[in-house]
Amino acid sequence: MTARERYNQLSTGRSQFLDSAVECSKLTLPYLITDDNAVKLNRRSFQTPWQSVGAKSVVTLAAKLMLALLPPNTTFFKLQVRDDKLGTEFDPQIRSELDLSFSKMERMVMDYIAASNDRVVVHQALKHLIVGGNSLIFMGKDGLKNFPLHRYVVNRDGNGNVLEIVTKELINRKILGFEPPGDAKGPNRPNDSYSTGSDDDDVEVYTCVKLDEKSGRWVWYQEAYDMIMPGTRSTAPKNASPWLVLRFNTVDGEDYGRGRVEEFVGDLKSLEGLSQALVEGSAAAAKVVFLVSPSSTTKPKTIADAGNGAIVQGRPEDVAVIQVGKTADFATAANLAQQIEKRLADAFLVLNVRDSERTTAEEVRMTQMELEQQLGGLFSLLTVEFLIPYLNRTLLVLNRSNQLPKIPKDLARPTIVAGINALGRGQDREALTQFIGTIAQTLGPEALMQYLNPGEAIKRLATAQGIDVLNLVKTEQQMQQEAAAAQQQQVAGTLLNQAGQIAGTPMMDPSKNPDGFNDMSDMIADQVTMGQEQQQAPPQE
Question: Per-residue pLDDT tens for 51-101?
């Protein structure tokens, strides 16, 4: 079975979800999701909704989800050392050094994400999730790529695990760079590019992605003209697949998800009808029409040609103005529309938007908690289906390109912790500062200095802040050298003071006892020189 045939076969199970997604898209963002036939024929005609509440709701919720998933000013994950390795195979003292190394890796990953277009594509995918409930992200060499619901089909097992993905794209024949043999057979499309041979025609390209049961790896290839294109076969580990199939809400037994807009499509339809009625009624009410009595001496042309402040002949009772007596009906419709807008604002978290230049880790955490409470575990689902696979794939790509330092497998295995449970290093910093403050307030500063290791506390605070301590914080060797130098300086000062006191005696008077004075000077110089040599000497191991 070719990829085209498999795509058409799986499209039957997708049709009801696609129809619902297209309907939801028409009420919010009409350009987002279209019918598969419209894409195929390149016919896209969008009708602007009568209200903008749906579009604003989708954009606001997508922005909040984006802030929770990929915050710009803080790390959204952390790499942890396996606790079972510490204390048994390795010294627990190296934990701080490993945390510092992992913190550097986290900053490198964040810099890599910031320099790419990942956030742009993820934000687009989130809008597809909110409206249509489904989205597909491919992590390629050139960055991320988002596939709308009308461009892919998916097959899952009973537990919701992805088994097969087939995508469909229209690529220009000139860009494709693949010419089929003369006896090749393909589907008959409206533009019939197989027979015309025009370079301006588009070619249907299918990408088939399957999970190989024997090797346990993902395997995919591309087909055009019902033939496998050479050089398109690729593989990836099962836990680091570049194909991320995302869902908004899951229903047991369904291959596709349900969007947020679908849950409130009734309110959106009602608001759409009320908005249309209010707009058209207001336009009719705003129209001013003058009626002139047929038996009056006042001529209609005189009224029509009269300017502002003009003086004309006539009787006021001969002229009347038509008024639409629908004020009460308009008020009822406006009140109902306002109630629906409030319900939609609460459902899509449009309220409580804070205008700020910087986004703190606490604000990100509060946003995540708000998403979790309002959307019933949505963020946890996105953490499992998007964040963790996304981070795994990113780390794999950076390791293969030698952009990250190698971590020996026998030393420690980094563990990815993402989501509300651990919002990066910022949560560690708050917990550490609260711990130190609690000890100081409860037991006093003396107990804090007695039991707390200052060097270890500084390292952990720097790790939590994401600060590189190289050449910033003094090492133990530097502190020992400075202490030795201070001690020698103190000894030299003491000897000089003693020498000054002795020099005041008659025995050390240079005029009376020159040899004694010279011996004292040589002794002080020897003591200072010995101290300097001890300071410069390397420590004994």
Answer: 999 999 999 999 988 887 888 767 778 777 766 666 555 566 677 677 777
Q: Which two tokens stand for residue 79?
A: 């790499």
Short-list 172, 177, 178, CA closest to 191: 172
Question: Closest Cα partner for 388 from 400, 377, 380?
Answer: 380
Q: Which CB contacts under 8 angstroms, 24+ apart, belong to 191-198?
A: 194/225, 198/173
DSSP string of 33-101, one letter each residue: S--HHHHHTT-------S-SHHHHHHHHHHHHHHHHHS-SSS-SEEEE--TTTBTTTB-GGGHHHHHHH
At residue 395 the predicted structure's pLDDT band, cuts being 50, 70 and 90, is confident
pLDDT of residue 280 exceeding 60, the answer is yes
CB 204 within 8 A of CB 4: yes
**What is the dihedral angle through the alpha carbons of 377, 382, 388, 390, rounded to the nearest 10 degrees?**
-170
Residue 167 has pLDDT above 50, yes or no: yes
- Range among 105-114, 158-167, 466-475 rated most confident: 158-167
Q: Which amino acid is at 148?
A: P
Amino acid letter, residue 186? G
Per-residue pLDDT for 188 more than 50? no
Q: Where are the domains of the chain?
A: 1-20+30-47+144-241, 476-536
Of 230, 141, 242, 126, nearest to 177 (Cα)? 230
Tens-digit pLDDT profile for residues 3-49:
999 999 999 999 999 999 999 999 999 999 987 655 444 555 678 89
Please report, for residues 69, 268, 407, the alpha-carbon distance to residue 50 in angstroms, rounded to integers and kept in the order given.
32, 11, 57
H-helix or E-strand spanning residue 245: strand 243-247
Long-range contacts of range 326-335, CB-CB < 8 Å, 24 or more positions apart?
326/281, 326/285, 329/281, 330/278, 330/281, 330/282, 330/285, 333/274, 333/277, 333/278, 333/281, 334/278
Q: How many CB atoms lie within 10 A of CB 488?
A: 18
- Among 54, 254, 12, 265, which residue's Cα sits nearest to residue 134? 254
Please report, in angstroms and rounded to a whole number, the separation of the first and last CA atoms in the chain: 71
Distance CA 446, CA 194 (A): 85
Q: Quick check: 270 and 278 in contact, CB under 8 A?
A: no
Q: Are 99 and 463 in contact (CB under 8 A)?
A: yes
Largest CA distance in the chain: 146
What is the pLDDT at residue 130? 95
Element (H, E) at 189: none
